[in-house]
C-alpha cells in the first residue's frame, strides 16, 4: 500500500484463482473501509497470478520478485510488532529488468493454516499474500488479505450445563442449558427453575459475552463485549415457575472459541444469566460455553 | 385526592404517547410491507410492540393500547399469509427470525403472529407450533402483560385449532383442549397473582382492575365450550376436572366466583347434568368467602331454565303426554295427601308438621352416605348416556344457544327423559344432598344465603319435577326449621331474607296450575305464618291472582277453608300490620282528615278486597248443599274481617242469591228445597244486616235487601219477603239521609216492589203505601214529584205479555179482597187506577208548587208522560180529559220558560242545578210527547177508543207539528 504514496512506477496486482467462486468475508479494514476477503480453509492451496505493470513504459530494474503467504498476529497495543507465525515464500523472478507487464503464477500447495482469521478488539489474526519487488530504491510491496476458516471436529462429549445457584434464603434457581458446546448456527435451549423467590424480580435476561484476552500476565488485556442481550422473562416469577430459554445463535456475529492462540490471545464465550429486581439490582451467573465451527450445509 | 388524580392524568398522557408511537410505527410497517421489505416491517412491528412493555398503564388503558396493536398486527398477518402462499417467505424461517427480538414481549407477539398464520397453512406442524408458542409464553409473568399476551395467543389461534381425531403433526382435538386448558390455567394464575402485587392499601383498586380483566380469563372457557367435537367423556374426564382443580387450588375469591359462574354459563346443560357431583363437591371446597350460594343458585337456575325450555321445545304431543302423566301423578298425590290430612284432622287433631314430614318417606336421614352413593352412581350412567348424547351435542356451538341440538338428543337417547333431564339423573336429590351438606359444613352461611339456595331448589324442583310435591314440601320444611333456628338473628328480617322467603313461597303459587295443590303441602302454611305482614300480604295477592287468572274452581269446604286460611292476611286484621288497615276501618267520615296516604291505602284495601270478592265467585260446587257449605265456610272467615266485610260480603250475598236461583231452577229435583232456600235466605238476611249495622254500608245493604227480597219473592216466601222489605225500609229510614240517595233508594224500592208478586193484599198495601209515603216525603219538590210519579206504578202492576195471567178477580176491586185470607189471596197483579190518578194529581200539585217555573214545566211534562202511559194502558180513572188539560197547561206556559225576557238568573244554566234541564230540552221533550200522542191517535184510528177524546190540536199547532 505504501507504494501508492511514493507514486511508485510499478503497479502490482494479485489475482487469486477462482476468486469469483469463493465465498467472501467482509471485514473491517482501516478507516471504516470494508474489505472483501476470499475465504480459504485449512489445508487448502492458495494459488493465483501476480501481474506487474510498469508505468509509462519505463524500464525498471529490480533485485528480485517474490511472493509470500503470511499468517500474522497483530496486537494493537503493540503496534508495529507483527508476529508472523507462518511465512511461506516463493521467488517469482530473479533480479533483472522489467520492460513491460509481466504475469507470474504462484501456488502455495496445501498450506497448513493453523488458526482461523480473527479480528477482535485488541488483536487481529490475518493471512495474506504478499508480493515484494526488491529494488535499491523504492521497493514495492503488495498485500492481499484472505480469510481463513477452519473446522474442528465436533467435540465428543457435549454435556448439558446444569447448576443450582442462589443467594441464601433469597433466591434459588436452577438453570439448565442443553449443551456446553455449540456450533455457530446452533440454538441454545434451556430452562430456569425457580426454587425459591423472596425478592421481587422484574425481569431476567440471558446475554452472550465475548471475552478477549491478549498478552500474557502481567501484561494481560481483557476485553468483554456483549454480543446480545436476550430477555427471557418479564415479570415476577413465583416458586415452581419454569421459564424456557431458546436462543438462536445463527444471527449473531460469533467466532469459534479460541484458546491460547499461539500463546498470544484467547477469545472465549460466556452465557450470562441476569436477574434484575425491582430496585434494579442485578443478580447474575456466568457460564462459559464453547463455540465451534462446523462445515456449512 | 391529589395523589390519586395525578397518576391518572399521567397515565392518560402515557397512553396517548404510546398510541401515537404505535400509529407511527404502523404507518412505517405498512409502507415497508408494501415495498416487500419484510425485515424493516418486522423492525417497525417490534418497535410498536415494545409499547406493550409498559407497566404504567391501568388495565383499561392497556387494553386500549392492545386493541390498537392488535389491529396493526392483522395487517402483518395478512401479509405473512400472502407472502407464504406466493412463496416469497417461508413461515418456518420467519418463525425463527422473529425470535431474535431481544425483548420478550415483542418477541412473543411476533412469534404468535407468525405461528398462528403458519397454523392456518395446510400441512404445517400445527401441534409443534402450538406447543412451542404455549411453552415460550411462560416467559411473561407480568400479570397484565401476560394476560394480554395469552389472550392474543388465544385470539389468534382460535380459528386454527385442530379438531381432528388422528395423531400426527397436524394435531388433534386433544391437543387443542390441552392447549386451551393450559392457557386458561396460566392466565388464571396470572390473574390471581395480580391481586398480590403492590401495596395492600390499593387492594380495592386492584380488585376492580381484576374485575376489568376477568373476561380475558373467562374467554378461554368460552373457547373450550366452542371447540367442535367435545363430547361428554372429554368434558367429564379432562376438561372439567382440570378447570375445577385450577379453580379450587387458586384459592382466590374473585377468581373462584367468576370462574364457577362462567363454567355454569358456557357449557351445555347436558354436560352439567352429568357432572353435578364433581362440580358441587368442588364448590364445597372453595374459599370460605366465596359466595357459594350464588354459584349453586346459578347452576340450579340454569338447569331449571333448561328443563323449562326443554319442556317447551319438546315434541308437543310428547310433552303433552308427559305433562298429563305428571299432572295425573300430581293429582293423585295431592288427593292422597289431602285425604291423609283430612283423616288426621278428623282423627287425633292436627299433628305437628315436623312429624308429618316423615310421611313423604324419602326425606334423607343420612345425607353423607347418600351423597356418595349418588356421586358414585353418576359415572356408571354415563356409559350409556354419553355415547348417545355425544352424537347430537356437537351441533351446539354458540355459547348462548346451547339447546339446538338437544332436541334431537332427547329423541335419540335411549334413556328416557323428562323435560330434558334424564330420568336416571336424580337432579333434585343430588342438589338437595349437596345443599344440605353445604349448609351443614358452612355454619357461617347466613340465612339470606340459605333462603336464596332454597328458592333455587324450589324452582328446580318445580320445573323439573312438577309432580314431586314432596320435594317442594321438603324444601319448605327445611326453610321452616331454618327460619326458626335463626329466629333471634337480625338477618332474618333483612330485606334480602324476606324477599327470598317470599319468592320461596311464591314459586309454588306461580308454578302449579291450581293453588289447591298448595294445600297438599303440609309445611307451606306454617312457613307462611312466620313471615312478616308485607310478605304474607303480597303472597296472598299472588295466590288470589293465581286463582282468578286460572279460574280455579274451589269446590270443597276444606279447600275454601284452606285457601282463605292462606289469605288470612287479607281477611283479618293482623297484629303485626303496620298500623294501616285498623285505622282505615272506621267509616268514610273519618278518612278525609287522615289525608292522602290513608286514601291511598283505602284504595289498595278496596282493590285487594275486590279480588277476594271475585274469588268468592269461584267457590262453586256442583252439589247445591255443598255450595251452601262453601259459602258458610267463607262467611266464617270473612266475619272476622271488620271493615273488609264491606267488600267481601256483597260477593258472598250475591253468590248466595245465585244459589237460591239454582235451587229454584231445580225445584222439582231438589228435595226440601224450600227449607234449604229459606235457610239460605236467612243467612243472606243476616249477612246484609251485618253489612248494614257493622260496616255502615246502608246503600249497598238496601240494594242487597231488595235483591234478596226479589229472589225470596220469586221463591214464594211471603213472610220472608215482607221481612226483607221491612229491613230495606228500616235501612232507608235509619241510615239514608242524603236526599239524592233517598231518591235513588225510593226509586229502587218502588221498582222492586212493583215487581213483587208473592204478597197478599194486606202486606202489599202496607208496603206500597209506605213506599209512596216515603216518596212523598222527600225533601225536594222535584224529587217528590218524581217519586210520586213512580209510586203511581205501585198501584198498577202489569203482567208481562209472556207471563200467564193468574186467575184473578176484577182488577178494580182491591178493597174487596182485603179481608180474604192473606196467605191465599195474592195481590198480584194489583191494579187500582183511582190511586194511580191520585198519585198523578198529587205529582202535578207538587210540580205546581215548585218555585221555578221551568221546574214546574219540566215536571208537568214528566207527569204528562205518565198520563199518556196509563191512558195507553187503559187505566179507567185516567181519562183523556186529564191529558187534554195537562197539554193545555203546558202549552200555555211553555213559552214563558224559553222567552228571552226571563231574568237570566231564572234561567238556570243546564247542569248547574240538579235535575233541571234547559228550556230547549223541555220543549223537545214536550214535542216528542205530542208526537207520541199523535201517533197513538193515528194508530187507534176510528175504532172509537179513548184516544179519540184526546185533543191536542192546539198544542200541535203551537209547537208546529203537522199531522
Automatic annotation (TrEMBL), chain A:
> Keywords for this entry?
Protein transport, Transport
Recorded hits in Gene3D superfamilies, A to Z, give: 2.60.40.640
**Could you list the residue ranges forming a coiled coil in this record?**
none
Example GO biological process: intracellular protein transport
Output the superkingdom of the source species: Eukaryota
The membrane-spanning stretches of this chain are none
Tell me which InterPro entries the record gives. Answer: Arrestin-like_C, Vps26-related
- Statement: the UniProt record of this protein carries the keyword Transport: yes
Provide the family line: Belongs to the VPS26 family.
Q: What is this protein called?
A: Vacuolar protein sorting-associated protein 26
Q: Which organism is it from?
A: Cristinia sonorae
Automatic annotation (TrEMBL), chain B:
Domain of life, source organism:
Eukaryota
The segment annotated Disordered runs over: 309-360, 805-828
Any one GO CC term of the record: retromer, cargo-selective complex
Q: Where are the transmembrane segments?
A: none
Q: Which InterPro entries does the UniProt entry name for this protein?
A: Vps35, Vps35_C
UniProt KW keywords: Cytoplasm, Golgi apparatus, Membrane, Protein transport, Transport
The family assignment reads: Belongs to the VPS35 family.
Official protein name in the record: Vacuolar protein sorting-associated protein 35
Instruction: Write down the species.
Output: Cristinia sonorae
Amino acid at each position: 500500500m505504501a507504494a501508492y504514496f511514493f507514486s511508485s512506477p510499478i503497479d502490482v496486482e494479485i489475482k487469486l484463482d477462482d476468486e469469483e467462486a469463493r465465498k467472501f468475508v467482509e471485514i473491517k479494514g482501516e478507516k471504516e473501509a470494508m474489505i472483501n476477503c476470499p475465504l480459504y480453509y485449512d489445508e487448502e492451496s492458495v494459488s493465483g497470478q501476480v501481474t506487474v505493470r510498469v508505468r509509462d513504459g519505463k524500464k525498471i530494474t529490480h533485485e528480485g520478485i517474490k511472493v509470500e503467504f503470511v499468517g500474522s498476529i497483530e496486537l494493537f497495543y503493540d503496534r508495529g510488532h507483527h508476529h508472523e507465525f507462518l511465512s511461506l515464500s516463493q521467488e517469482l523472478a530473479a533480479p533483472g529488468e522489467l520492460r513491460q507487464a509481466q504475469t507470474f503464477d504462484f501456488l502455495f500447495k496445501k498450506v497448513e493454516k493453523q488458526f482461523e482469521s480473527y479480528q477482535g478488539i485488541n488483536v487481529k489474526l490475518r493471512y495474506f499474500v504478499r508480493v515484494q519487488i526488491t529494488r535499491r530504491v523504492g521497493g514495492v510491496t503488495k498485500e492481499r488479505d484472505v480469510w481463513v476458516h477452519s473446522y474442528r471436529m465436533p467435540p465428543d462429549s457435549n454435556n448439558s450445563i446444569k447448576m443450582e445457584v442462589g443467594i441464601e434464603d433469597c433466591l434459588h434457581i436452577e438453570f439448565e442449558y442443553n449443551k456446553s458446546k455449540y456450533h455457530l448456527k446452533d440454538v441454545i435451549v434451556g430452562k430456569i427453575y425457580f426454587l425459591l423467590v423472596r425478592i421481587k424480580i422484574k425481569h431476567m435476561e440471558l446475554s452472550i459475552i465475548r471475552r478477549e484476552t491478549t498478552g500474557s500476565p502481567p501484561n494481560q488485556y481483557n476485553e468483554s463485549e456483549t454480543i446480545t442481550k436476550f430477555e427471557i422473562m418479564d415479570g415476577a416469577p413465583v416458586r415452581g415457575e419454569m421459564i424456557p430459554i431458546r436462543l438462536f445463535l445463527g444471527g449473531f456475529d460469533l467466532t469459534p472459541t479460541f484458546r491460547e492462540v499461539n500463546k498470544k490471545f484467547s477469545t472465549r464465550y460466556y452465557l450470562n444469566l441476569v436477574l434484575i429486581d425491582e430496585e434494579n439490582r442485578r443478580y447474575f451467573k456466568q457460564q462459559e460455553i464453547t463455540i465451534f465451527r462446523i462445515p456449512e450445509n | 385526592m391529589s395523589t390519586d388524580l395525578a397518576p391518572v392524568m399521567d397515565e392518560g398522557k402515557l397512553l396517548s404517547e404510546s398510541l401515537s408511537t404505535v400509529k407511527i410505527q404502523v404507518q412505517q410497517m405498512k409502507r415497508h410491507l408494501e415495498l416487500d421489505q419484510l425485515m424493516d416491517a418486522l423492525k417497525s412491528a417490534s418497535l410498536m410492540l415494545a409499547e406493550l412493555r409498559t407497566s404504567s398503564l391501568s388495565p383499561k388503558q392497556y387494553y386500549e393500547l392492545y386493541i390498537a396493536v392488535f389491529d396493526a398486527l392483522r395487517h402483518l398477518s395478512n401479509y405473512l399469509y400472502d407472502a407464504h402462499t406466493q412463496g416469497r417467505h417461508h413461515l418456518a424461517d420467519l418463525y425463527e427470525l422473529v425470535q431474535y427480538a431481544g425483548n420478550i414481549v415483542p418477541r412473543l407477539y411476533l412469534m404468535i403472529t407468525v405461528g398462528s398464520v403458519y397454523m392456518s397453512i395446510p400441512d404445517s406442524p400445527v401441534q409443534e407450533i402450538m406447543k412451542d408458542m404455549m411453552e415460550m409464553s411462560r416467559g411473561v409473568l407480568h400479570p397484565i402483560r401476560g394476560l394480554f399476551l395469552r389472550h392474543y395467543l388465544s385470539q389468534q389461534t382460535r380459528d386454527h385449532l385442530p379438531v381432528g381425531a388422528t395423531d400426527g403433526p397436524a394435531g388433534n382435538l386433544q391437543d387443542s383442549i390441552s392447549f386451551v386448558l393450559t392457557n386458561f390455567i396460566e392466565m388464571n394464575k396470572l390473574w390471581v397473582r395480580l391481586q398480590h402485587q403492590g401495596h395492600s392499601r390499593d387492594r380495592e383498586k386492584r380488585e376492580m382492575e381484576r374485575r376489568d380483566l376477568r373476561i380475558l380469563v373467562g374467554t378461554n372457557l368460552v373457547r373450550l365450550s366452542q371447540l367442535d367435537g367435545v363430547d361428554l367423556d372429554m368434558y367429564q374426564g379432562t376438561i372439567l376436572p382440570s378447570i375445577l382443580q385450577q379453580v379450587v387450588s387458586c384459592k382466590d375469591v374473585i377468581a373462584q366466583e367468576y370462574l364457577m359462574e362462567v363454567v355454569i354459563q358456557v357449557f351445555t346443560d347436558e354436560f352439567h347434568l352429568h357432572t353435578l357431583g364433581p362440580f358441587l363437591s368442588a364448590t364445597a371446597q372453595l374459599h370460605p368467602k366465596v359466595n357459594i350460594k350464588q354459584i349453586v343458585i346459578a347452576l340450579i337456575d340454569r338447569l331449571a331454565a333448561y328443563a323449562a325450555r326443554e319442556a317447551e321445545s319438546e315434541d308437543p304431543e310428547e310433552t303433552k303426554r308427559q305433562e298429563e302423566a305428571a299432572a295425573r301423578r300430581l293429582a293423585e298425590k295431592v288427593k292422597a295427601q289431602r285425604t291423609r290430612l283430612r283423616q288426621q284432622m278428623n282423627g287425633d287433631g292436627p299433628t305437628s308438621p315436623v312429624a308429618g314430614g316423615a310421611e313423604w318417606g324419602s326425606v334423607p336421614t343420612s345425607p353423607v352416605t347418600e351423597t356418595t352413593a349418588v356421586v358414585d352412581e353418576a359415572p356408571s350412567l354415563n356409559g350409556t348416556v354419553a355415547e348417545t348424547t355425544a352424537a347430537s351435542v356437537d351441533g351446539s356451538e354458540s355459547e348462548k344457544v346451547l339447546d339446538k341440538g338437544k332436541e334431537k338428543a332427547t329423541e335419540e337417547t335411549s334413556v328416557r327423559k323428562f323435560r330434558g333431564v334424564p330420568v336416571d339423573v336424580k337432579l333434585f336429590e343430588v342438589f338437595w344432598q349437596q345443599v344440605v351438606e353445604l349448609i351443614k359444613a358452612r355454619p357461617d352461611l347466613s340465612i339470606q344465603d340459605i333462603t336464596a339456595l332454597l328458592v333455587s331448589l324450589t324452582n328446580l324442583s318445580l320445573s323439573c319435577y312438577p309432580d314431586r310435591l314432596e320435594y317442594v314440601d321438603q324444601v319448605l320444611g327445611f326453610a321452616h326449621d331454618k327460619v326458626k333456628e335463626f329466629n333471634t338473628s337480625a338477618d332474618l328480617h333483612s330485606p334480602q331474607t324476606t324477599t327470598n322467603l317470599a319468592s320461596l313461597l311464591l314459586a309454588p303459587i306461580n308454578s302449579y296450575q291450581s293453588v289447591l295443590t298448595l294445600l297438599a303441602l303440609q309445611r307451606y302454611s306454617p312457613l307462611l305464618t312466620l313471615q312478616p305482614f308485607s310478605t304474607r300480604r303480597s303472597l296472598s295477592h299472588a295466590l288470589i291472582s293465581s286463582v282468578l287468572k286460572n279460574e280455579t274452581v274451589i269446590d270443597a269446604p276444606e279447600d275454601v277453608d284452606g285457601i282463605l286460611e292462606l289469605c288470612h292476611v287479607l281477611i283479618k286484621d293482623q297484629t303485626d300490620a303496620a298500623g294501616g288497615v285498623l285505622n282505615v276501618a272506621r267509616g268514610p267520615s273519618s278518612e278525609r282528615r287522615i289525608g292522602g296516604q290513608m286514601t291511598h291505602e283505602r284504595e289498595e284495601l278496596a282493590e285487594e278486597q275486590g279480588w277476594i270478592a271475585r274469588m268468592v265467585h269461584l267457590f262453586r260446587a256442583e252439589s247445591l248443599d255443598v255450595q251452601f257449605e262453601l259459602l258458610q265456610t267463607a262467611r266464617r272467615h270473612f266475619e272476622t274481617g271488620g271493615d273488609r266485610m264491606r267488600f267481601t260480603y256483597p260477593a258472598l250475598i250475591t253468590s248466595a242469591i245465585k244459589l237460591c236461583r239454582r235451587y229454584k231452577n231445580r225445584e222439582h229435583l231438589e228435595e226440601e228445597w224450600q227449607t234449604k232456600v229459606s235457610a239460605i235466605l236467612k243467612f243472606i238476611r243476616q249477612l246484609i244486616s251485618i253489612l248494614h249495622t257493622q260496616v255502615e254500608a246502608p246503600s249497598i245493604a238496601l240494594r242487597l235487601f231488595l235483591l234478596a227480597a226479589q229472589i225470596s219473592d220469586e221463591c214464594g216466601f211471603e213472610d220472608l219477603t215482607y221481612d226483607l222489605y221491612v229491613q230495606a225500609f228500616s235501612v232507608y229510614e235509619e241510615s239514608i239521609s242524603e236526599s239524592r240517595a233517598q231518591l235513588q233508594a225510593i226509586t229502587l224500592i218502588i221498582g222492586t216492589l212493583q215487581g213483587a208478586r208473592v204478597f197478599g193484599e194486606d202486606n202489599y198495601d202496607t208496603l206500597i203505601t209506605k213506599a209512596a209515603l216515603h216518596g212523598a216525603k222527600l225533601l225536594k219538590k222535584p224529587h217528590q214529584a218524581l217519586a210520586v210519579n213512580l209510586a203511581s206504578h205501585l198501584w198498577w202492576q202489569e203482567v208481562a205479555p209472556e207471563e200467564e195471567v193468574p186467575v184473578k178477580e176484577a182488577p178494580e176491586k182491591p178493597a174487596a179482597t182485603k179481608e180474604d185470607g192473606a196467605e191465599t189471596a195474592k195481590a198480584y197483579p194489583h191494579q187500582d187506577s183511582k190511586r194511580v190518578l191520585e198519585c198523578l194529581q198529587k205529582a202535578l200539585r207538587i210540580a205546581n208548587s215548585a218555585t221555578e217555573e221551568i221546574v214546574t214545566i219540566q215536571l208537568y211534562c214528566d207527569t204528562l208522560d205518565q198520563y199518556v202511559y196509563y191512558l195507553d194502558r187503559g187505566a179507567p180513572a185516567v181519562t183523556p180529559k186529564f191529558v187534554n188539560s195537562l197539554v193545555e197547561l203546558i202549552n200555555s206556559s211553555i213559552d214563558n220558560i224559553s222567552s228571552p225576557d226571563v231574568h237570566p238568573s231564572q234561567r238556570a244554566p243546564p247542569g248547574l242545578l240538579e235535575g233541571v234541564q234547559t228550556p230547549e230540552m223541555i220543549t223537545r221533550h214536550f214535542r216528542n210527547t205530542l208526537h207520541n200522542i199523535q201517533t197513538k191517535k193515528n194508530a187507534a184510528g176510528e175504532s172509537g177508543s179513548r184516544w179519540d177524546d184526546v185533543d191536542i190540536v192546539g198544542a200541535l199547532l203551537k209547537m208546529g207539528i203537522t199531522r
